[in-house]
Amino acid sequence: MEDLIIKISRVFFGFALAITVFISLEVWLINHKNIPNDQAQLTVLENKKVAINSAVEVSAAADIKTTEITDDARPILIKKYLEKYKSPLAPYSDMIFQLSQTYGFDYYWIVAIAQQESNLCKKIPDNSHNCWGYGINSAGTLKFDNYELALKSYAEYLKTNYFDKGLNTPELIMKKYCPHSNGSWAYGVNQFIQEIESGSF
Predict the structure, then answer these.
(1) Backbone φ, ψ for residue 162 (5° rounding)
(2) Secondary structure (H, E, C), 111-140
């Protein structure tokens, strides 16, 4: 929040500074004896246009940056993260976000666990489309025909088997998801969540 306030303050300061500079230039040009008044006014109008355009560009850039840290940027963060790591899930970034909204859990869970379990689906059982290592045991491997079906199944699985039962942190999920972990599973998931949320990837 503090960063956001600083960014907004900088935008307003830049805008005020630009207006002040060009108003001063306007006064100087009008009073300057060597420049005809019509030419001076034309120059002032051109400079005002430049000043306004510059201020608008600065403001637009700040708006884009601000959007990146709001909730509306969550689908963008998912997409950028998956594309950064060349995940086969990248085309499903919007679906991942919508599933998290439908089932009422944070947008980063599906991606963070996929990163921990399969390097974002790059290391999975053949033809399984199973990026989360669930339903894989001595009895067999849970497989899906495509990523869309896998995502829908996994989102429901997370909600009913974990979040609905109060298991809503990596540490709590780990106790049931991979109880033999020495803590590295939760550590990894936490790290990936922080990476996704920060946008610094």
Answers:
(1) -130, -65
(2) HHHHHHHHCCCCCCCCCCCCCCCCCEECCE
H helices of the chain, in order, are 2-31, 37-67, 74-84, 93-103, 109-118, 147-161, 170-177, 184-198
Q: Which fold has domain 72-198?
A: Lysozyme (1.10.530)
21-35, 49-63, 86-100, 133-147 — most confident range: 86-100
Assessment of whether the complete model's pTM goes beyond 0.85 = no
pLDDT reported for residue 78: 98
- pLDDT digits over 55-90, tens only? 445 444 444 444 444 558 999 999 999 999 999 999
8 A C-beta contact, residue 121 and residue 88: yes
On whether the CB atoms of residues 89 and 82 are closer than 8 A, the answer is yes
pLDDT for the residue numbered 138: 80
Please tell me the distance from the alpha carbon of residue 114 to that of residue 89, in angstroms, as a whole number.
10
DSSP label of 141: E
A 10 A CB-CB count for 44 gives 18
Per-residue CA distances from 52 to 21, 28, 36, 38 (Å): 12, 19, 24, 21
